[in-house]
Write a structure and sequence with these properties.
heterodimer, A: 635 residues, alpha/beta, Glutaredoxin, Rossmann fold, Ubiquitin-like (UB roll), 5-stranded mixed β-sheet, 23 helices, 39% helix, 15% strand, B: 163 residues, alpha+beta, 4-stranded mixed β-sheet, 6 strands, 42% helix, 16% strand
Chain lengths: 635, 163
């Protein structure tokens, strides 16, 4: 491809890309698109793709294939879309190595594109075909219909490793538009949009840029924070794997507005595919002249390097992240000076999150006013949310701010699987908290979630059902933050450890009632006495748990009972002599040798030797169901 | 094995020489310590005391600085790992959906605690805070291939597939 030497040349390149894209969709051979993000790959999407391709090769059918990122319907993965000539592009889900042959039979032999694996038709304006009776549009799917996809606009629809696909969708036109504006005008537009940092802190993006633009100094840095450390969040990964150029274009717009010549993307090493696709995207952008010297003939020069994180949650914090790029231990420092004045290598630095950057091209293209037409109050625009845990349709969505948790969990997520009741939802990961089932009418925006004691954070939503013990959950989060504390501030380093010790005592049934007050006292000390966001928010899961589920803590302490039967010390496994057939499976599986009994005779569990691993319960045949878990008061 | 040397494409070279080569290949020399340690680790699978010394000398910093960084980040290993790495995800979603039982199961099967390597050097077992595969929990990575929705009865076939 030739270089985009100026805006005109870029338009020519876009025109060619658009033509190639139309040819791809309207070609005479079938098109097979496979959702190949980490989630799809883990569901064996590559194997399914190969399976379909070999079926087609056996039939002598010519076809074309392409990879796409994640559409967000992760619950139905692997996803493959098939476009037959002159027919709609149809998305198929729940594929498996043993149902792809029947899919190929239906679609290719029997012309039955609307079958039991069909999720819906991917209606794109450029596909002009007759509608198929009975075939629903995928945009009407309950998980997709309520969404407004701005940051995720291309995810799952284009090949992330081919810049032409991004260009065909208007890619880099916003950069050209921004370059024709004054930097101050770009900042003003972003301010009008009301966009706030999507990494968690929610600081207004335009204002942040302005600070850095006004800071004295010629050399300024721009950092894209892709250190998505919140366990439970995967929106940054999905965007980087599905539409990396959206992030690069956002970085270019930010760099122009602020006046940076060098950018960094700090991405976790745990995301090898995102790193690979970013690398390809950077090379493609360089070849086209969209990175480097004199970009689009504007005189602006800017380039981006990737810095691979080495595994530290605290590096999501701005000052710790910069220390890590400088090659040091990722420990936060006091602010001021703020990074806008003295950041990376002492130079003015601006840091934005992946999702924040992915929104920018659309804000410049369609205007700040358009973006701010979505949302409520001071939370404008949309937010990507990752749904996981006890929910029928886990996946990645993007909704206007202000939608209630109720709508998100039940309408989009499909509610809790099985006949379990929803206990609540964890928002904001280890820095957030649990919003209980009786408060699900709360709108998802920065302020409302904070009011409930949790935070928006990066947007992870983990739904929990009645089987989850709140004490165990609080212990889980504290184990994480305690381990990830960098150790600089004493309240965080020692306080989280002491909080964890108290939670362990509670879960073992060894605590006294005064421990709750001690836990709350410590939580407040850690919150107020820590320098950075890690310590400042680490107590949130414990504090919200105490605020909404205090009686569960009291059960553990006063009655030594774990009502959800999770805390090991407070449960016992028993074998029902009426139901046991003496098959011996449990005895074989027991790693502790705690099960006694001869073949064909009733077995028993030696409670002293039992390590409560649950292996016996897992192997006991469904038809016997002889092993039971019950409340045990600890000795 | 001699830890003062590494074998690259069949050739044995001294660790000092190798560290020099790796440093030269880095696109940026600013903040080189972490990327350099990452490359040393991808050569040898871990960072040996000799490598720490060589890195410190090459970057003209004290060994304590190198150790400080190598022990701060979860990615760096200071002991040789097994031939195959099993990483069980204990992110929130995976923890709530059976990640802990999966970990306990591998731990019992292999007879090692998380963070350790089997005596024959074949397997090492680790936990990871999040693989970003929450929609398909519990997830795990085997030699960097990610498996989603892993059930306990799949564990034997996963182990059997590794030689």
């Amino acid at each position: 491809m030739k270089r985009a030497s100026d805006a005109q040349a870029l338009q020519e390149i876009q025109k060619d890309a658009k033509k190639a894209w139309l040819e791809l969709l309207q070609g005479e051979h079938p098109l097979i698109c496979t959702g190949l993000s980490t989630c799809g790959i883990s569901a064996k999407a590559s194997e399914c793709q190969l399976g379909i391709e070999s079926e087609l090769a056996d039939r002598g059918i010519a076809f074309r294939s392409m990879k796409v990122g994640c559409l967000g319907l992760c619950y139905a993965e692997p996803l493959i879309y098939i476009k037959m000539p002159n027919r709609p592009l149809v998305c198929y889900g729940h594929l498996h190595l043993h149902n792809i042959a029947s899919l190929v039979d239906a679609v290719f032999d029997n012309n039955n594109i609307n079958n039991n694996l069909t999720l819906g038709a991917i209606d794109l304006p450029e596909i002009k075909v007759l509608p198929v009776p009975g075939l629903l549009s995928l945009w009407e799917h309950p998980m997709i219909k309520p969404q407004v996809r701005i940051a995720l606009r291309n995810c799952g629809l284009i090949d992330p490793e081919d810049i032409r696909h991004y260009l065909a969708h208007g890619g880099y036109a916003s950069l050209a538009k921004a370059l024709a504006m004054k930097p101050e005008e770009v900042i003003a537009e972003v301010k009008i949009s009301g966009l706030r940092g999507r990494g968690g802190a929610g600081f207004p993006t335009g204002t942040k840029w302005e600070f850095c633009r006004r800071a004295p100094g010629k050399e300024k840095y721009l950092i894209c924070n892709a250190d998505e450390g919140d366990p439970g969040a995967f929106m940054d990964r999905s965007i980087l794997e599905g539409d990396p150029h959206a992030v690069l274009e956002g970085m270019l717009i930010a760099a122009y507005a602020i006046g940076c010549h060098q950018g960094y993307i700090y991405c976790r090493a745990e995301y090898p595919l995102a790193l690979k696709r970013l690398d390809i995207a950077l090379q493609e952008a360089r070849e086209l002249g969209l990175l480097g010297e004199d970009i689009l003939g504007s005189g602006m020069s800017f380039d981006i390097s990737i810095k691979e994180g080495a595994g530290a949650f605290v590096c999501g914090e701005e000052t710790a992240l910069m220390a890590s790029i400088e090659g040091r231990r990722g420990m936060p420092r006091t602010r001021p000076p703020f990074p806008a004045n003295s950041g990376l290598w002492g130079k003015p630095t601006n840091i934005n999150n992946v999702e924040t950057l992915a929104n920018l091209a659309q804000i410049i293209d369609r205007g700040g006013k358009w973006y701010s037409s979505f949302g409520v109050g001071r939370s404008r625009g949309t937010k990507t949310l990752s749904l996981a845990g006890a929910v029928r349709r886990p996946g990645l969505i993007e909704v206007p701010m202000g939608m209630t948790l109720q709508q998100i969990i039940f309408e989009i997520g499909g509610g809790v699987p099985g006949d379990k009741a929803c206990k609540g939802v964890l928002t904001g990961g280890p820095s957030g908290g649990c919003i209980p089932y009786f408060s699900l009418d709360v709108p998802v925006d920065y302020e409302s979630l904070t009011e409930k004691g949790s935070i928006m954070g990066s947007g992870s939503m983990i739904i929990i059902d009645e089987d989850i013990c709140i004490v165990d959950l609080a212990k889980f989060f504290l184990t994480f933050t305690q381990r990830e504390s960098c150790g600089k501030c004493t309240p965080c380093r020692i306080g989280t450890r002491q909080m964890l010790a108290i939670l362990e005592k509670i879960s073992e049934g060894q605590a006294v009632i005064g421990d709750i007050a001690r836990l709350e006292g410590l939580a407040n000390a850690v919150k107020n006495g820590s320098l950075c966001g890690l310590g400042g928010t680490a107590p949130n899961p414990v504090l919200t748990a105490l605020r909404y589920f205090r009686e569960e803590f009291e059960e553990h302490i006063l009655n030594k009972i774990c009502p959800s039967l999770v805390c090991k010390n407070l449960v016992a496994y028993t074998i029902d002599p009426e139901r046991c057939k003496g098959c011996g499976l449990c005895k074989e599986s027991c790693p502790a040798g705690a099960i006694l009994g001869e073949k064909k005779a009733v077995h028993t569990i030696n409670a002293v030797a039992c390590i409560k691993c649950g292996a016996c319960m897992a192997v006991c045949p469904e038809k016997f169901k002889a092993v039971a878990k019950e409340v045990a008061r600890c000795a | 094995m001699n830890q003062a040397a590494v074998t690259i494409m069949g050739l044995e070279i001294g660790i000092e020489e190798r560290v020099r080569q790796l440093l030269e290949c880095l696109p940026e020399k600013d903040g080189a310590l972490i990327p350099l340690l990452q490359r040393v680790q991808s050569d040898q699978g871990f960072i040996s005391p000799e490598a720490v010394k060589a890195v410190a000398e090459e970057l003209d910093v004290s060994e304590s600085i190198v150790y400080g960084v190598a022990t701060f980040y979860a990615e760096f290993k200071l002991v040789r790992p097994g031939k195959h790495h099993l990483k069980v995800c204990l992110g929130t979603s995976c923890y709530l959906r059976g990640g802990q039982s999966l970990l306990d199961h591998f731990s019992r099967k292999l007879g090692i605690r998380p963070g350790k390597t089997t005596e024959d050097g074949k397997f090492s077992l680790e936990t990871v805070a999040c693989l970003g595969c929450c929609s398909r929990s519990p997830a795990m990575a085997v030699d960097n291939v990610i498996y989603g929705g892993v059930s306990l009865d799949q564990t034997d076939s996963i182990l059997a597939g590794l030689d």
